[in-house]
């Protein structure tokens, strides 16, 4: 692998992208997920730290059976990091690209994989470093709200005090479309669906992307 970060290009939509862009539905990314799952014990502490909000909020429920939809959740690393830190019975689902869904099913993990956002209800929708890669992030978020979760948890979402723009992330030899989202625009879109900001943490700034930062965010609504 080589090259990390973002190219100095700005687009308004996917229609403007050059033809040589790729996606995370590729063999290298899929194999990386498989390898990480095989070495899950070595990464357990790191994964636990990144999934702190998910662990905290699942344990806030009074009921025992909790359903979670992890949008862009890879092959399920967050599921395995969660289990040692809760007594809840977890029904875990992941919405992912086809190659990851196929790998997850072949790995025989106790997770339901979907190549689309399922039309059913979940207690928690978890979105970690994933909304940025959606072709239409507003539609994706709108579809996730239809799952009527009590909590929507964002982790490591790139936002900032700048107009929303689309750029290209350099991931190895791949160029991956990637959104930087205006923070207030995100909040306004969430508010359209009567979800409220309940927990907000600003992570760290991104020196290669001025006016941008990563954000951890919990929204409440739905069945509350």
Keywords for this entry:
224 residues, Rossmann fold, ten-stranded mixed sheet, 7 helices, globular
Would you kindly provide a written description of the structure presented here, covering whatever features stand out?
This protein has 224 residues and is of the alpha/beta class. The protein contains seven helices and ten strands. The chain has helices spanning 27-38, 40-50, 52-58, 77-82, 98-106, 137-145, 183-191; strands at residues 4-6, 65-71, 89-95, 112-114, 124-128, 151-160, 165-171, 174-182, 196-205, 212-220. α6 (137-145) links the parallel β5 (124-128) and β6. The radius of gyration is 17 Å and the shape is globular.
Give a concise summary:
With 224 residues, the chain is of the alpha/beta class.
| CATH classification class | Alpha Beta
Share of β-strand residues: 25-35%
Helix content: 25-40%
Looking at CATH, the homologous superfamily is Vaccinia Virus protein VP39
Contiguous helical run count: 7
| Element order: H for helix, E for strand | EHHHEHEHEEHEEEHEE
CATH topology: Rossmann fold
- Which second-level CATH architecture applies? 3-Layer(aba) Sandwich
Arithmetic mean pLDDT: 88
Distance between the termini: 45 Å
Which helices and strands occur, and which strands form pairs?
Layout: E1 4-6, H1 27-38, H2 40-50, H3 52-58, E2 65-71, H4 77-82, E3 89-95, H5 98-106, E4 112-114, E5 124-128, H6 137-145, E6 151-160, E7 165-171, E8 174-182, H7 183-191, E9 196-205, E10 212-220
Parallel strand pairs: 2-3, 2-5, 3-4, 5-6, 6-8
Antiparallel strand pairs: 1-7, 6-10, 7-8, 9-10
């Amino acid at each position: 692998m080589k090259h990390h970060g973002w190219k100095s290009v700005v687009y308004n939509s996917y229609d403007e992208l050059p033809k040589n862009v790729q996606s995370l539905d590729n063999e290298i990314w899929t194999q990386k997920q498989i390898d990480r799952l095989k070495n899950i014990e070595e990464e357990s502490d790191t994964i636990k730290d990144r999934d702190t909000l998910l662990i905290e909020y699942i344990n806030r429920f009074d009921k025992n059976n909790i359903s979670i939809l992890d949008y862009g959740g890879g092959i399920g690393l967050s599921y395995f990091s969660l289990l040692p830190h809760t007594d809840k019975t977890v029904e875990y689902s992941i919405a992912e690209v086809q190659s990851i869904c196929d790998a997850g099913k072949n790995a025989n993990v106790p997770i339901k994989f979907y190549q689309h956002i399922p039309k059913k209800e979940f207690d928690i929708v978890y979105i970690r470093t994933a909304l940025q890669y959606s072709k239409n992030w507003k539609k994706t978020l709108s579809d996730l709200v239809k799952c009527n979760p009590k909590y929507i948890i964002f982790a490591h979402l790139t936002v900032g005090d700048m107009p929303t723009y689309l750029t290209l992330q350099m991931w190895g030899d791949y160029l991956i479309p990637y959104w930087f989202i205006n923070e207030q625009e995100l909040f306004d879109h969430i508010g359209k669906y009567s979800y409220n900001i309940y927990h907000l943490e600003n992570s760290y700034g991104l020196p290669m992307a001025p006016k941008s930062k990563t954000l951890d965010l919990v929204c409440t609504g739905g069945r509350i």
